[in-house]
């Protein structure tokens, strides 16, 4: 069921009810990107270099191993990718343990979905060690299913993580809406067949949304998600 990243979801002749909302973690629900800024800069310094702004942009939404590989290439260093990835994971875990704040309006969105009795999943490229630190800071039971980056064989932009979440929830991914903030994540959710809502802090940074409907996070409501799924039309930019 794997589709080419960015090719868009299968077009259904009709749509069912909204069965689940699937949430990305970093940068979508939680303001964790500043913490990644610190750990990535620390990794570059540990390797004897300085992280460029372009490389930082390139690794947004990426998995740990690819992120480390890109940083090695950018710095021109020959180092063990697995060792650097383990170092980065532990440094980031330490920062996450100090507290990861919600993005404005994000908690209200998740809680409103829960109040409607709609299933929820957290679908992230982050490793379980990091997700555990975040979940420990939350009210239990906000997410029915959690799929982490080290629990799938093909990370985003492959749809495996989203397909896995839908399968565990027992729902059709075409009856799900995914909230994402990065090009990789949007491509993964679209390829899985979800309706995708992009909620980046800077909507202009995504251009035309990469095939997602761009909506400010504070404007996301359950009714709006239901309407997008019911319409099942070619995605369009929403300001």
Automatic annotation (TrEMBL):
Alphabetical list of InterPro entries matching this protein: HAD-like_sf, HAD-SF_hydro_IA, HAD_sf, PGP-like_dom2
GO MF term set: hydrolase activity
SUPFAM superfamilies on file: HAD-like
Annotated protein name in UniProt: HAD family hydrolase
Domain of life: Bacteria
Gene3D superfamilies assigned to the protein according to its UniProt record, in alphabetical order: HAD superfamily/HAD-like, Putative phosphatase, domain 2
Keywords assigned: Hydrolase
